[in-house]
Amino acid sequence: MVNAVRVTDKSCIKPLKDRLEREGVLHKRLKIAQDDGGTGFLIPLNSSAEIPADITDQFELVKIADDVPLEEQKKLPISKWSLYPPMALLPYNCPDITTKQAEMVAKTLNVSHIARNSPISDQNDIVRKPHIVPIYGDFGPEPTPESVEHPSKDDFEHAFWASSVQNGIRQCWAPRYTMFSRGNIHEKTRVLNSFASQATIKDHVVVDMYAGIGYFALAYAAQGPHRVFCWEINPWSVHGLVKGAQLNNWPVRVIQHDEEYIENENDFIIVFLEDNKNAPRRLNELSKPITHINLGLLPHSKLAWQDSLSMASKNTSSPCIIHIHENVAQEDLPTYPQQTLITLQSLNPNLQISFLHLEKIKTFAPAVWHICADYKISQPATTG
């Protein structure tokens, strides 16, 4: 795998490419190509060269495949792909390939399945339904409204599942029913490397209000918390999260929306298949404090801010960090931290809230950033 700079503004491609070439950072063999979602372009970098800091600050870095010999790549009818064993995912604008060509691609890349990606048509889709076109291999039965909303045990068993390893953590999902965002690796790495310095994770409680297949929940789990409580409304994402936890050998159980939760001493990852509005009630009495609450929904997670503050307010012995994900226009980034702080404080004036950090994760669209803002929630200092 090699690094690549992801650019969403076409006008930036040539000047950035020219600069990278001058500084010896541009990859000499791999070509610039569109990303899987068709919303940006990937400029491959020389893995042995140091990337200028101002570039890493301004643009998202992603990993792309470089594990197929050049001579083999030249024989392929495609020039860009992402590997998610046992599947190769092609970009949405990839040319059509014949069955014979698909067989050659599968053999060369050592995969059993090939699909073409498609852009998400509805960016406000909370469930984040995927859009792929199967090309080669058995992807399981065609999804139906019933199998999407109310999957049976047989639906799960007959579906095709793909996997990925990032930061040594295995994740799993059904490409026909849920999506995987490899661009989140930047934030997953931050969860692993710096969140524990904001507030203790080990032996404490973490809450993920929009867990998906466990993008961030599994990164928290890798750090030895007492419990990781997850909320997710998509049953396919929940099943993927369960399979991912099992692949990492972590205990996991699912609680249905009409099922009472009774804390078990062996609990580790607990996934509630329901609306997260039930979170404050479910976690009203815990033996350990909540020190991190993850709000990883785009374009925003404002509907969960009040409940998150309510749960954070239960802490008396340690602060709680709320991690707010949102799509923010470039021009609004300078004022976002303070404006959000004012809003949070208005939701619960009795708490002491402070802004810690704003992380630009990746460009979501031209001049729009997917960010995560960290806020520290504490009880007000007592006097006397």
UniProtKB/TrEMBL annotation:
Residues 102-379 form the SAM-dependent methyltransferase TRM5/TYW2-type domain. GO terms for cellular component: cytoplasm. InterPro entries: MeTrfase_TRM5/TYW2 (IPR030382), SAM-dependent_MTases_sf (IPR029063), TRM5-TYW2-like_MTfase (IPR056743), tRNA_wybutosine_synth_prot_2 (IPR026274). GO terms for molecular function: S-adenosylmethionine-dependent methyltransferase activity; tRNA 4-demethylwyosine alpha-amino-alpha-carboxypropyltransferase activity; tRNA methyltransferase activity. It holds the Pfam family TRM5-TYW2_MTfase. Transmembrane segments: none annotated. Its main location: cytoplasm. GO terms for biological process: tRNA methylation; wybutosine biosynthetic process. It catalyses: 4-demethylwyosine(37) in tRNA(Phe) + S-adenosyl-L-methionine = 4-demethyl-7-[(3S)-3-amino-3-carboxypropyl]wyosine(37) in tRNA(Phe) + S-methyl-5'-thioadenosine + H(+). It comes from the Eukaryota. Keywords: Cytoplasm, S-adenosyl-L-methionine, Transferase, tRNA processing. Pathway: tRNA modification; wybutosine-tRNA(Phe) biosynthesis. It is found in: Cytoplasm. S-adenosyl-L-methionine-dependent transferase that acts as a component of the wybutosine biosynthesis pathway. Wybutosine is a hyper modified guanosine with a tricyclic base found at the 3'-position adjacent to the anticodon of eukaryotic phenylalanine tRNA. Belongs to the class I-like SAM-binding methyltransferase superfamily. TRM5/TYW2 family. This is tRNA wybutosine-synthesizing protein 2. It comes from Trichomonascus ciferrii.
